[in-house]
Write a structure and sequence with these properties.
The complex is a heterodimer.
Chain A (H helix, E strand, L loop, with lengths): L8 H15 L3 E5 L3 H4 L2 H6 L4 E3 L4 H13 L3 E7 H7 L1 H10 L5 E5 L17 H6 L5 E3 L4 H12 L5 E5 L20 E4 L4 E5 L1 H17 L4 E5 L2 E3 L3 H11 L1 E9 L4 H12 L3 E7 L9 H7 L4 H16 L2
Parallel strand pairs in A: 1-2, 1-3, 3-4, 4-6, 5-6, 8-9, 8-11, 11-12
Antiparallel strand pairs in A: 5-10, 7-9
Helix pairs in contact in A: 1-8, 4-6, 9-13, 10-11
Chain B lengths: L2 H25 L1 E2 L1 H5 L2 H11 L14 E4 L5 H11 L39 H14 L6 E6 L6 H12 L5 E7 L2 E2 L2 E2 H4 L5 H7 L3 E6 L3 H12 L6 E6 L18 E2 L2 H14 L1
Parallel strand pairs in B: 2-3, 3-4, 4-8, 7-8
Antiparallel strand pairs in B: 1-9, 5-6
Helix pairs in contact in B: 1-3, 1-4, 1-10, 3-4, 3-9, 5-6
Classes of the chains: A alpha/beta, B alpha/beta.
Chain lengths: 318, 275
Amino acid sequence: MTTQPTPEMRAVYAQTLLDLAQQDERILLLEADLMRATGTRPFLEALPSRTYNVGVAEANLVGLAAGLSATGKIPFANTFACFAARRAYDQFFISANYARLNVKLVGTDPGVTAAYNGGTHMTFEDLGLMRNIPGLVVLEPCDPVSLAELIRQTAYHAGCTYMRLHRGVAPAIHASQGHLLLGKGVMLRDGEDLTLIAAGVVMVNEALAAADLLANDGHSAAVIDMHTIKPIDIELVLESATRTGALVTCENHQVINGLGSAVAEVLAERRPTLLRRVGVQDEFGEVGPLDYLKERFGLTAENIRQQALDLLQAKSGR
Amino acid sequence: MEEHEKRFLAAKAKKVRQLTIDSIGRLGVGHVGGSMSIAEVLTLLYYRHMNVDPQDPRRRDRDQLVLSKGHAGPSLYAVLADKGYFPMDWLHTLNRGGTRLPSHCDRNLTPGVDMTTGSLGQGLSAAVGIALGNRLDNIESTVYCIIGDGESNEGQVWEAAQAASQYCLGNLIAFTDYNKMQIDGYMCDVMNIEDLTAKWVAFGWFALRVNGHDLEEMDRAIERAKAQKHRPSMIVLDTIKGKGIYFAEGKLASHNMPVAYADALEAIDRLEKEG
């Protein structure tokens, strides 16, 4: 039996975008001198006249995308998440979103996956920045299966989107694409004692591992892939709160204004429920290998387990 | 340019100034200086050069204008109202709650406005994107862009300048409203941008500098720019901030100033008498 080699997420991104673009000439690729990192060279090779590399100029990357979308094009603009969110925020805010245009912004290497690029390149705040843009769809797919489907839906969503893209290899988690919908979280594993709500490659995998650890501890944890951070799936959050009475959010991001905040907002206003937020605790990033950084910032299955056990104790004491 | 055309355009420029100061005067405050300094170029574009249809403001093959110095919206609104994009009485609603005419241009609110602008430095990038989109669709229209001189302090202007040159955008013609003043003072004192024409040339643009209140001189410059098929053009306009408004002309304070309606009416009257 031969096993299919697991593709890098960026390869899935490039191929999916190319497939879409070959069927729809409105779809364009924009880059800012990071094509080698974002992995989109196959797109350039197949469709050079629909690829624009603006050089090291992220403000112009986003502004140019806004102008292209004003002519009916569907531009996908890629750069590292740190530049997409921090450097070009005003351009994305005004020229793209406030102008009600249609720019698909993609930020690669989110959070600790910036690894050897270090603190300067480590975005723990992009989801927060983006969540504050009115009407923007913000997402972070966790595996190649959901990535491919969500790119398609992103392309045909009327309006701007921001997607966090994990660059490297990621195992398939979703069995199929049929059930995937922007704005709708997916229950990956059912459970009764608590719910782990995670987003992105790093944290969905850690959450699944944490659920295994908790099972060994005798606790049944549900796991949700909340691939769309905005709009958050309010129904699923409330349903999980009612069913399990305890939630842990898991994000490769600051706990401030990211996934954990989004869930906390839903719960606080509609159904106050015990909650712990696993994520970066108001700190800047730093350099190091991925495993070191995950430990350093508590983005691990073991930390999720500890937070969950603490939460379950609080729950039983109620 | 025929004499009667020149007279027609000069009368239109005067009317643009009158409508603009009327709308600002009714509100009591506004961006007088930078609205007045571009009255001639707007007139020349909308009444002579741009292929547009007020009945079909989003027609795909139209010429477009990105007014990157979005705070000069009031003078663009005067032109668009006069062209028939929307009723003249909309001009009385400038900046009122619920208006379709906000201080800074908004493509979703105002028929005829091609791009939302106001955060300085961003318009030229959008214009480059529109020019690229038109070229992809084989649409032979021209994208115009007006940037401010103070705005040219913004780094993004020069990012967009590089890109327009790299992509050989012969369908892009930009102007700099060079009235030599920015909010906090004269440009040479705050942040000098000379040699401005040489800078655009160095970025690979066809660039020239003309009197921004001389219709014939500007017209010739636009014709020369249109003849550039493989590179973008920058026409630097030497202008006077607040031009034509007796209490604003040449005054640093004219950027965003209070205007009593009686003074606006006096300005309208003086413009009329000056012919």
